[in-house]
Amino acid sequence: MINPILDAKEAAAALVDAAFQRAVAAGELPDAPLPAYVVEIPADITHGDFAANAAMVGAKALHRAPRQIAQAICGHLELEGSPFQRVEIAGPGFINFFLGPQWFADVVRSVRQRGEDYGRSDYGKGEKIQVEFVSANPTGPMHMGNARGGALGDGLASALDWAGYQVTREFYVNDAGNQVEKFGASLEARYLQLYLGEEAVPFPEDGYHGEDITQRARQFAQLHGDAYVQADSEARKKALVEFALPLNIEKLRTDLERYRITYDVWFRESTLHPDAVNAAIQKLADRGMTYEKEGAIWYKATENGGEKDEVLVRANGIPTYFAADIAYHYNKFAVRGFERVVNVWGADHHGHVARLKGAMDAIGLDGSKLDIVLMQLVRLMKDGQPYKMSKRTGKAISLTDLLEEVPVDAARFFFNMREPNSTLDFDLDLAVEQSSQNPVYYVQYAHARICSILKKLEEEGIQPRACNDQELLALTRPEESALIRCLARFPQEVVDAAKNYDPARLTKYAIQVATDFHKYYNACRVKGECDSLLQARLNLCLATRQVLRNLLSLLKISAPESM
């Protein structure tokens, strides 16, 4: 049972299809194709574990009332050897399937047998997919958007990996272009001010004002003294950037590693200049997608879904950021062979989505293989009020500041609690609270509670062992069935998180597992029961611990054994 829910859905559909054919053969239904239908989990499981709407969607094609179709199908259902023990017709003609006790026993056994691999599947069939996320400019510290994008992108990459894709995590280093020019000018001004005074050296209007710029200029001065004060401006800026940029990139890497994010590839924009950028522009030109106007080279964006045509090379001969972006994505698809590419961007980039996808079509690739996950803003909240300033710097809170205030576990969990396209309120007080009100604490406590049960039983000489069918079939209490149903969902939750690019499904699911376990723990004793029931319930506890451990591991959140 790699995916118990999907397996059961497919079994229900196969039973309906076979019963429909038998009903046709018996002359009870007309010989016409049964339209596509769905097998779903009803909102209220007292109506069944799965429901098929085949009778309703077939009414028009078969010229029969839905209940009549449902009765004909149900009259020919053969449940023997299937996961189901009975079916019912409900409402206008839903065919409701009720799982048998063997299915519940098999789920517990499957979780225990698959262990650390439970939740993994081959849904993605090894498709080569790249997830690019954060990609913060190396000209300053990471902000709250980067913090959310990091947790979201890393969670999504993990879900894709668990769902059977071949995943590459990538950070795009913007170490070329206008922002690096601005970085150099800002560093130059701060360096010269150290020796000539602030009044003598005006700071660039559009420069980077952060304290980190002043710090890098001081470090450069400690190394070189005033040797560059009289140097040529271009040579001075070049030396400053070559000194400061690697330090900033390394700071990005170490900050992200502290956040438990490691990348497979750090791709530098500078490696695209000039050859790859020029080649991409030439490919567009060869396909008739460019024209010259006022000394600049333009891309015909309006012919490929864009709102207006875009400049690729300015009149001064310098390529635009958009030209480099086209070359970068051409490299992803055509050079490195990714079959699908996912970019996690801030919502302020929404205007760039259609034009970049259109550019992929224009250059001869398939823009539909490029998926953009747009992420809304984060509002930090403290004492019920928006919280914007770092006590340490007096500036906007950075990722480093955040991780000094809240545990990494809480940060990663909280940032994945809402869908990417929803604004997120991050409650700093709740993130450090050690109570069931804190969702990550609540989930981790369920794991620790199971470890505590096992430890106490071990102290009494009771060790868990594998159970036979007869023993596992005794897990029939409503709270036991509800917990097993929940554990069965894990592989499908991972698949759904992967295909919908929504890791928030996994934090919601984690809370559900913890909730169902706490209900089970309060309703069903483990200690004090006869050996066979004690062992069956111990196996269910172990299966729950395994799912929580796998789930938290996927999200790179710790699973403590005591709290």
Strand proportion: 5-15%
**Alpha carbon gap, first and last residue:** 33 Å
Low-pLDDT residue intervals, each spanning 5 or more residues: none
pLDDT averaged over residues:
95
Shape: flat
> Helix content range of the residues, please?
40-55%
Descriptive account of the structure:
Residues 10-99 form the Arginyl tRNA synthetase N-terminal domain. It catalyses: tRNA(Arg) + L-arginine + ATP = L-arginyl-tRNA(Arg) + AMP + diphosphate. It is an enzyme of class 6 (ligase). This protein has 563 residues and is α/β, with parallel strands linked by helices. Helix content is 50%, strand content 13%. The longest helix is centred in the middle third of the chain and has 26 residues, at 233-258.
Please give a quick description of this structure.
This protein has about 575 residues and is an alpha/beta fold.
Write the layout of secondary structure elements.
Layout: H1 4-25, E1 39-40, E2 50-52, H2 54-62, H3 66-74, E3 84-90, E4 94-99, H4 101-114, E5 128-132, H5 144-162, E6 166-173, H6 178-196, H7 211-224, H8 233-258, E7 265-268, H9 275-286, E8 290-293, E9 296-299, E10 310-313, H10 321-335, E11 340-346, H11 350-362, E12 370-375, E13 378-382, E14 385-386, H12 399-405, H13 408-415, E15 424-427, H14 428-432, H15 439-459, H16 469-472, H17 478-488, H18 490-499, H19 504-523, H20 531-554
Parallel strand pairs: 5-6, 5-11, 6-7, 11-12, 13-15
Antiparallel strand pairs: 1-2, 2-4, 3-4, 8-9, 9-10, 13-14
Helix pairs in contact: 2-3, 4-17, 4-20, 5-13, 5-18, 6-7, 6-8, 9-10, 15-19, 15-20, 17-19, 17-20, 18-19, 19-20
